[in-house]
Each structure stands twice: as C-alpha cells, then as structure tokens.
Amino acid sequence: MSRPRRLHPAAPPGGPPAPPVTSASAAPDTPAPARPVVPAARPESAPTLARAADETPALATHDLRLVYGAHVALKGVTLAAPPRTVTAIIGPSGCGKSSLLRSFNRMNDLVPGARATGRVRVGDLEVLDPRTDVVELRRRVGMVFQRPNPFPKTVFENVAFGLRMLGLKAATELEWRVEDSLRRAALWNEVRDRLHESALRLSGGQQQRLCIARCLAVEPDVILMDEPASALDPSATARVEELVIELKARYTLLVVTHNMQQAARISDRTAFMLDGELVELDDTRRLFTSPRHRLTEDYITGRFG
Predict the structure, then answer these.
(1) Count of structural domains, the chain
(2) Cα 194 to chain center, whole Å?
C-alpha cells in the first residue's frame, strides 16, 4: 500500500530557553564533586506533552532481554518513546545503548548467537514477531550510524538509492524526492551544484547529513541515531543537532550519545542505562537537575563512567 507523501517543511521548534541547571544534593558523608556544566534542556511545549499522554508510543519495549551467546546485553528493558519527540540514551560504554537501538530494526539479527525475548514495538508493529517483514521494518525505521557511511556513488545516487530499491523509476519523481530529502537534511544549498560529484568528496559533516537525507528519502516513521556527531567537528556537530531538533516536528527520534551536554540540548526525554538495565527515564530537564536514582546522579556528576 502506498504511503502518503510528507511535502511540507518541518517547523522549527519553539519555546523559551530553560532555566539554568542546579546541582543536586550529595550524600551527607560524601563530598559532592562539581557538576559538569550541562546546558538546560529545552522545555517541552504543551502540544508535545499532550501527545505524550494521549498517543500510542511510536517506539516501545517491554521486558526486553537480549543475549549474545552467553553475554547478557539487555536485562528486561521497558521503555516508551512518544510520537514526534527526541529521546536520548546515555550511559557508559558497554551498557547496552546501541544494542537497544538496534533492537528496533532487528539489526541484532545479524550478530551470531543473538537472541531477543520480550516485546519490541514500532507503532502497532510487533518487531520480534517472526512474521514481520524485516525489509519493510527497516524502511519504516531509518538509522544513522556513528561515522558517515555514504556509498561510493554520486550525491544524487546516494539519496536515490533507497527509492530505486523500492521500485521508483520515474526520473521526474526521483529528482523531486532527492531534492526534497536534501532540503529536509539542510544540505540542498551546499550540494545543489554538486549532485553528480562523488559523495566521498563532501566534508564529514556534509556526508553525515547526506546519510540523513538518504534515510529521509524512503519516508521512515522513526529515526535511530547511534552517536551521529561523535566523529564530527564542533561546527558540523552543531548543524546535526539543529537538524535533529527540526526533524522531531515530523519524526520520532531515538539518539544514543556519550555527550551529556548534547543530550540536554537536543532531547525531550533522556534514558540512563547501566550494565544492560534501564536505570531511569525522565524528562531531560528533570533527569539532569534532580535525578531520582543515585546511580544517575553519580554518572552525570562524573563519579564514574
């Protein structure tokens, strides 16, 4: 069944800046290290809060367990991401962030010995159901990786690749969809005269936005990002962060990051993971200013990690 096209550009997020972050209290017998300067998270607008309460989660897991052979990567994770929000996942290396992310498009299936139990849902689709069409699932769940991975093709053919795989052949339609995707990825003005040059000649930040455009071209429902700016310079990182905030007007985004300042800047909600468990999931501003769990406070104040 054909899916309706989204034609209108995303509206930029609004709202006043959030108040500054304050330090949480430390235990009476332990001197508290200085809390790192974490920018205050953007306050959610009233419509976003209403959607979170009223709509079916765009992404959800229930008691998700994932093992790689004898190694337990996820231990009963239950999480929900409301539609058209950005949820950041933070935690030390090896805590299961990327394994959780890859559970939503079943990329863990490619790992020998991987087994998942529990429930994973994308909208109303049961991801772990053996009857699920994995190709269609991965069209609905776009993914952007840590390092830009453009194909050794032209800029145009990189964006058109998924569309051709889906059977789109009309030249006029392909041209329109490629341009629309590049505009939504905030890249069109930089490459409009370079469409037939190799994508490998673009800068690292441009390549990452090209990969985002390639993802948007096939009209996903949700977008997963695994540390999308970790290999970029500060200027390119800022462009990707701005793009994430713009995209949430139309998509649900789940973003893994080691950068707590970045999580505070771009996300509506933040999840903290440790040793394969979801320790805390809350509004980003609350999690960074008054976490409910001592482990969360220890991590964001730098006691470990």
Answers:
(1) 1
(2) 28
